[in-house]
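Researcher: I'd like a candidate sequence for this fold, 160 residues long. If you have to choose between options at a position, lean toward the conservative one.
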């Protein structure tokens, strides 16, 4: 494994330890979204925006807690990388946003992105975790694996 990848794995291990220590007993989704955004921004390199979009009853996405520059407030159902991830119920790793035609650019600095669906204990998609980088190829399968694991902890939250 390359040094960069080893550093990335170490950063995610530290992030998971912090998440468990800080949010282990917490059940409120807003507390989770705000705190996880903060920890990710603080503990991972090369990220200028991290946050959540919340799924609304009609299928549109509305901005949730985030860290970074001003984001699009709403994303219509099925649109953008976020809507695509919700419709597929699958994470989307985008090494180059210019190669992903559906990408919605909220900030011209965006070069690569990862979106991970957030599910409740019944498997219903409640929103997405979205992370943006100003570097090409910032996200890969290592990121996908660790972020899906972290977001999987949100299944046990009290969503209603
Ligand atoms: N790029 C996203 C929009 C949200 S911003 O990145 C914060 C998308 O294509 O859905």
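Model: Candidate sequence:
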């Amino acid at each position: 494994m390359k040094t960069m990848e080893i550093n990335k794995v170490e950063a995610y291990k530290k992030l998971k330890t912090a998440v468990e220590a800080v949010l282990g007993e917490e059940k409120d989704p807003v507390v989770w979204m705000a705190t996880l955004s903060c920890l990710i921004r603080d503990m991972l390199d090369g990220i200028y925006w991290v946050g959540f979009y919340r799924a609304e009853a009609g299928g549109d996405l509305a901005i949730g807690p985030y860290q970074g520059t001003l984001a699009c407030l709403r994303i219509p159902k099925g649109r953008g990388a976020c809507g695509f991830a919700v419709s597929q119920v699958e994470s989307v790793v985008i090494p180059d946003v210019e190669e992903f035609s559906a990408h919605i650019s909220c900030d011209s600095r965006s070069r690569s992105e990862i979106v991970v669906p957030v599910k409740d204990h019944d498997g219903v998609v409640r929103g997405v975790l979205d992370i943006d980088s100003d570097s090409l190829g910032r996200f890969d399968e290592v990121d996908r694996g660790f972020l899906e694991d972290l977001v999987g902890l949100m299944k046990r939250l009290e969503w209603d």
